[in-house]
């Protein structure tokens, strides 16, 4: 088992605790494997009626995959090809699928930072958010795309919210997550002792219903996404990233100006790939979305955009990624469609058994 994943069973509930606080619980291959082993073990264990996954701290549930690992391994191998990278994404996406179809209640307490891979191990279950929740699919900021099932759950958000969240990579809070359909329940920190008591004392077979009853008494407050919904739907339904930019440029509002500023820092290519990904994801089931994303990951590391993005934001921290292409005007349809070209025949796809 991974030193960063602690598992136990109490009162009919299997508990998975992510405990890598210095890295905000960023997932390593060993952590993915440890979570998968626990879930597979408990799946057929009659003494476990529900599963609760949480962090050892309120600072972060899980900030995503271990992007330093992505950078180091990707740089060290030709065209970003590495057995370790292949294993990581194949096994992570398999875990995401397992969570979506887990036969027992699977509950995620999404405290603090919940991004990327953290969303992947939460979105298929019962999702609890708190005052500290900072949720995002920010992959376009590092030259990647919203994976771990992002093409599935973002494409099913109301209106154009999925395009907005995926293409911009902005961070939202608990009220926004509930509004976007990316969370189920809100638990205020002011009442945290009561929540902890409930989680510890309630038998696993009754845990999901008990959480729903508890959360019904609490209100997360107003959502900024709700306030901006009309503008989001207007601009992000434009049909393409260039059309979204043009629509925003014709709007003198504060929302439009702020959104344009955010988008100037993102990878032009990966914003366009993300838009196409969410469009395609709307017509696919969970397995189809994960298979599509698995293909895109291979192309993405061969392209090298993610290696540059991680270098600029995490390794060198110069915040000056040299995106290729550098501008949205240089991104062609052929560049985008190349990411969706099959890498393997269907019978050999790493996720063919999902």
From TrEMBL:
Keyword Hydrolase: yes
All residue ranges annotated as the Enoyl-CoA hydratase/isomerase domain in the record: 14-340
UniProt keywords, alphabetically: Hydrolase
UniProt cross-references to Pfam families, sorted A to Z: ECH_2 (PF16113)
PANTHER family: 3-HYDROXYISOBUTYRYL-COA HYDROLASE, 3-HYDROXYISOBUTYRYL-COA HYDROLASE-RELATED
Protein's name according to its UniProt entry: Enoyl-CoA hydratase/isomerase family protein
């Amino acid at each position: 088992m991974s030193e960063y994943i602690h598992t136990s069973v109490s009162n009919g509930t299997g508990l998975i605790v992510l405990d890598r606080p210095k890295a905000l619980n960023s997932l390593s291959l060993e952590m993915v494997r440890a979570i998968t082993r626990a879930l597979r073990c408990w799946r057929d264990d009659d003494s476990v009626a529900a599963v609760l996954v949480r962090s050892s701290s309120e600072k972060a549930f899980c900030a995503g995959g271990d992007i330093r690992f992505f950078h180091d391994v990707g740089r060290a191998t030709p065209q970003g090809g590495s057995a370790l990278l292949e294993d990581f994404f194949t096994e992570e996406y398999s875990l995401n699928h397992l969570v979506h179809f887990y036969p027992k209640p699977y509950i995620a307490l999404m405290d603090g930072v919940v991004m990327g891979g953290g969303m992947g191990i939460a979105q298929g279950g019962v999702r609890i958010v708190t005052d500290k929740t900072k949720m995002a699919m920010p992959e376009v900021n590092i030259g990647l795309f919203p994976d771990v099932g992002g093409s599935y759950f973002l494409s099913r958000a109301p209106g154009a919210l999925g395009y907005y969240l995926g293409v911009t990579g902005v961070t939202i809070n608990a009220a926004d997550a509930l509004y976007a359909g990316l969370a189920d329940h809100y638990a205020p920190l002011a009442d945290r002792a009561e929540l902890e008591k409930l989680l510890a004392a309630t038998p696993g077979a009754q845990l999901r219903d008990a959480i729903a009853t508890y959360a019904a008494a609490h209100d997360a407050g107003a959502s900024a996404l709700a306030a901006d919904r009309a503008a989001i739907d207007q601009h992000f339904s434009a049909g393409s990233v260039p059309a979204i930019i043009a629509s925003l440029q014709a709007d003198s509002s504060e929302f439009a100006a702020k959104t344009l500023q955010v988008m100037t820092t993102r990878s032009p290519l990966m914003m366009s790939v993300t838009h196409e990904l969410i469009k395609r994801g709307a017509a696919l089931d969970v397995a189809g979305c994960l298979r599509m994303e698995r293909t895109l990951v291979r192309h993405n590391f061969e392209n090298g955009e993610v290696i540059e993005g991680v270098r600029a934001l995490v390794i060198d921290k110069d915040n000056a990624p040299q995106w290729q292409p550098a501008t949205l005007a240089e991104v062609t349809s052929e560049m985008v469609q190349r990411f969706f070209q099959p890498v393997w025949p269907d019978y050999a796809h790493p996720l063919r058994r999902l």
